[in-house]
Amino acid sequence: MASINWSGIFPAMLTPFDEDGKIDFAMLSINIEAQIAAGIHGIILAGSLGEASVLTPGEKFEILTHALQVVAGRIPVLLNITENTTADAIAFAQQAEKLGADGLMVLPPMRYRGDDREVVSWFRSIAQHTKLPILVYNNPVDYATYISLDMFDELLQEPNIQAVKESTRDLTNITRLKNRFGDRLKILAGVDTIFLESLALGADGVVGGLVDAFPRETFAIFDYVKKGEVDKAVAIYRWFMPLLELDIHPKLVQYIKLAAAKEGLSTPFTRAPRLPLVGEEEVRVNKVIDDALALRPQL
User: Fold this and answer.
1) Matching Gene3D superfamilies, A to Z (predicted)?
2) pTM of the model
3) How confident is the model at residue 143 (pLDDT cuts 50, 70, 90)?
4) Whole-angstrom Cα distance, residue 93 to residue 130?
5) Of 230, 162, 160, 188, which Cα lies nearest the Cα of 47?
6) CATH architecture of 8-237
7) Could you tell me the residue ranges of all domains in the chain?
8) DSSP 8-state symbol, 188
9) 111: confidence class by pLDDT, cuts 50, 70, 90
10) Kind of pairing, strands 186-189 and 161-166?
11) Sequence-ordered list of residues with C-beta below 8 angstroms from that of 76, at least 6 positions apart, any chain
């Protein structure tokens, strides 16, 4: 079984498009290289921020293949699973493994809200049909499915279920998970606006959004926390917070793409039904980004 060191920063990568809605692979390469240069520890492709809902399975595999060529073994490359049926999810996982993915992030079933038994069966069935390490995405706020500690008890019977993207918004859950499972379940903080607090409480790493636009600042906060220099981390974090709040909005894709475009790390284009920002919202979001850039800390 492949292994991933679930420590560090794992950007939920944007999927850049050109003006015609085609995937801009050259821009994806630029962002991947910027992430690696900043010191990040792995990338996650075709998640919510990567606009999984408007990508075909074929496009997701094209993105994976391209990213693997760019990364060339330097960091782990994970692909996100957001299928509707267990059979499709298994087939997707097996194709990702065949193409060379290093791991998978798996969401609960998307269109059907299963009960606890059904959700556990979903994750375990996928895990039993691939050797790839699995990161379970626990986000009851956005996806209406809460994966409880008792459910993780069952999930961890599968050795390749190794980590959780902890997006419950409840910081006490990190301590509950650590008390119950110790190092058997690695914890990646999944909400930008509490990622420093999550690290301070023992989260092993971060699945980030604004890291797409600001990899160096994200890495610096992580690095300072791990070195015990929390004051230095907090100083950058306070500057970062207005930007991080762009991650907890339904239009996070448009917002973060706009920020990344200003940094030369993405295009601003999304696929419909997402539309470009207009009016007061466009002015307000641009001001948040521009104000932050004007006061950017020296690293």
Assistant:
1) Aldolase class I (3.20.20.70)
2) 0.97
3) confident
4) 7
5) 188
6) Alpha-Beta Barrel (3.20)
7) 8-237
8) E
9) confident
10) parallel
11) 4, 41, 42, 43, 102, 103
